[in-house]
Amino acid sequence: TLDFKFLLKPKYQATPCIVEEGPNRLLTRGALQGDRRLALFRISNDEVLEYRVLIKADRVSPFDLAASWRAYLENLQPSTVRGIPDVSINSAPDTSIE
Hints:
- The protein is mostly beta strands.
- The protein has one helix at about 60-75, and strands spanning about 1-5, 5-10, 20, 25-30, 30, 40, 50, 75-80, 85-90.
- The strands form four sheets. It has a three-stranded antiparallel β-sheet with strand order 1-4-5, with no helix packed on it.
- The mean pLDDT is about 75.
């Protein structure tokens, strides 16, 4: 089970993400629990944005998931873009000799 909320990230501004209003969503066995198909984001006291959401999840074997997680951790390189923490993953190991 995955417990989450959507984030709204401004594309051309280095401002913080806006967290979806309301209770957390639950994704269990590839299916979204509940009937909430809209995500609400409060921009200001007077302005609320509403987006329709659709979630598609494919089942993955535990072995494939463990292998992907291990590869992710081995290639994790934290960086910062425009002051926003970001993560990039190497697509191939660095074989250069220093």
